[in-house]
Each structure stands twice: as C-alpha cells, then as structure tokens.
Design goal:
The protein has 334 residues and is mainly α. The protein has a domain of 232 residues. 79% of the residues lie in helices and 0% in strands. The protein is built from 14 helices and no strands.
Length: 334
C-alpha cells in the first residue's frame, strides 16, 4: 500500500477518535467518576480484548496460511486484525473501511486475488459466527428463563432468520460469493451503474476469488471449522467484558445473563448497522437487554460507557499500528 493511501485510512481513524471524544453523551465529571469506579477492571477489559483480537488473528491466519502465504508473519496478521477492526468501528457501514485496508496491506505478500479472497473469507467467517452465536443464545435463553407468548414469537423469528442466513452463507462457501453478490448488486437501480461495469471488467479476478472461497470449504474443512470455532469462542470470551463490568456494580449477574446481554445488544446494533460508530444503538441495546433480564437499565448504560472507552482505546492503538511495521514487500502475484 502506498503511503498516501495509508495516510488516508489513518485520517479516517483519527477522525473517528475525534468524533467519539465529541459524542460521549455524559458530562466529563460523570465520565471520570465512571472510570474511577471501574478501577482495575478497566485495564483488565482492555487486556481481555488483546486476547480476543489474538483469537481473531489466529482464525484469519489459518485461512491465509497455505503455500506461498506461509511467508505472511503472524505478527503482521495480528496488526492488520487490530487496525482493520479500528477502521470498521470508524465507518458508518461495517466492512467499508477495515476490509479494503487489509486487502491492500496483505496484497504485497500473497497477491491481490489471494488477499481479497482471504479477507472476504474471514469477513464471512466473522459474520457467520454472529448467527451461530445468536442461535446458541436462543438455546441458552430457553434453558435458563421462562417463556411467554411475546418472547416465544421473538425467539422463533430470530431463530428462523439465523437459520436462513446460515443457509445463505453455506451456499456462499460452497459456490463462492463474490460474483453472486455483484450480480445481485447489478439488479439494484442506483448501484448497478457501478456494479455491472466492475463485474465485467474484473470477471476473471472475481472468479478466481470465488474459486479460492469454495476451496476452503471443500478441500480444507479442518481449517474452515477451526477458524469458525475460534471466531465463535472469541464471541463467548468477549462476554467476559460485560461480566467484568457488571461485577463492578453487583455480584448478582451470572455469566449466562452476560452472554444474553451481548447477544441481544449485538443483534440490536446490527439491525441498525448503518449508524456511524453504532452511536445510540449500542446504548439502546444494552438498556433494553438488561431491562429484559430484570437487571436495572442503569447497569446497561454504565456497561455501554465502559465499552465505549475500551473501543476508543483500541481504535487509537489500531490507528497507531497503521504506521508501524510497514516494510516494503514486493512480489509479482496477481
């Protein structure tokens, strides 16, 4: 990647940091008191996310590690994982910032088509694990809480949606997804003006990407399920963040409840995926999920505050990492 492009992504990340600092919906005294109350739990949460990103990086590295791709250092994959997520937090619609950045940084190591397919595959795996996590949370709720008519309807609709999405992703893994997605975009009135010419111009490269996507599921099933398992496990481990925060406030919240809080909040936030930095959606999700589990909604708002601070810290770390370890690496791969 050229320094000009890297500086553009750096600028996006810095802008996100400024926006987050300006949009904390609390007074400075309230923010400071919240951080003081967190005490040592706050650095524990930040360190926890270093471990979660490590799991994400291993899941991605398993996908890109084959043949010539072995030359990609793991530390570089870890760096791109953190910086990519920092950019995804910064962009209004997920996968619009971090994924192009990862492709451009990885291309000198493995070539453009391999970089694109590995990033698309990992993004699919990350999203796929969302639906597995939500289905798991539905089962957990059924085993842990009484069900009324309204909740039963909600769980059935959510479960049906997750199963449909899982079917769609499995078809994408078997047959590739790049060409299919662009052909679908080619039927949308405003988007087709860009999608149709792009598909025609890049058809050979897109077919190569699809071939590599299908190859993972067909020929490297151990890698496929290991990567998916790590992504799912990372989501379970991520629920420890809410558990840590809740333990600042009370000792009466179980880890099971924390998993359900994270599941509902992430579902709510993803419904409103277009919100920049998920402003408002996460706060609403935490408040609704804690209220639905008979936990004071104020606990949810405090959890959202500490989570915002953690995100800000890791966005800053990810943005700074963009300027570190970018030695020249040239090859002739396409």
């Amino acid at each position: 990647m050229t320094n000009k492009l890297r500086n553009l992504f750096l600028g996006i990340g810095l802008a996100a940091v400024i926006v987050m600092l300006c949009t904390f919906d609390v007074e400075s005294d309230e923010l400071w008191n919240g951080l003081r109350r967190a005490g040592l739990w706050l650095p524990a949460i930040i360190i926890l996310w270093a471990f979660i990103y490590l799991m994400n990086a291993i899941a991605w590295h398993l996908i890109i590690r084959d043949g010539a791709s072995n030359r990609v250092p793991f530390w570089f994959t870890y760096k791109l994982t953190i910086s990519g997520y920092a950019l995804n937090y910064a962009t209004p619609v997920g996968l619009m910032g971090g994924e192009p950045y990862r492709i451009m940084e990885l291309s000198p190591y493995v070539g453009k088509s391999k970089a694109a397919s590995s990033v698309i595959l990992y993004a699919m795996m990350h999203i796929f694990s969302h639906f597995i996590f939500w289905l798991f949370s539905i089962l957990l709720y059924l085993l842990s809480y009484p069900i009324n008519g309204t909740m039963a309807t909600l769980l059935v609709l959510t479960g049906a949606f997750c199963l449909l999405a899982i079917y769609f992703f499995m078809q994408g893994y078997k047959n590739g997804m790049a060409m299919r997605t662009l052909r679908m975009l080619g039927r949308i009135p405003l988007v087709k003006k860009w999608a149709v010419p792009f598909t025609q111009r890049k058809q050979e490269a897109l077919e190569r990407v699809d071939q590599q996507i299908a190859e993972l599921h067909r020929q490297r099933r151990t890698t496929f399920y290991a990567s998916l398992g790590l992504e799912f496990l990372a989501r379970i481990v991520g629920c420890l963040e809410v558990y840590f925060i809740m333990n600042i406030l009370t000792t009466n919240v179980s880890f099971t409840a924390c998993i359900l809080i994270v599941a509902f909040t992430s579902l709510f936030a993803n419904i409103f995926f277009f919100s920049p930095l998920q402003m408002g959606t996460r706060e609403g999700g935490f408040a609704l999920s804690t209220g639905g589990l008979s936990i004071p909604s104020a606990f949810g708002l405090y959890t959202s505050l500490i989570t915002r601070v953690r995100e800000l810290v890791w966005i800053i770390i990810g943005v700074l990492l963009m300027k570190v370890g970018n030695g020249k690496h040239n090859n002739n791969k396409k």
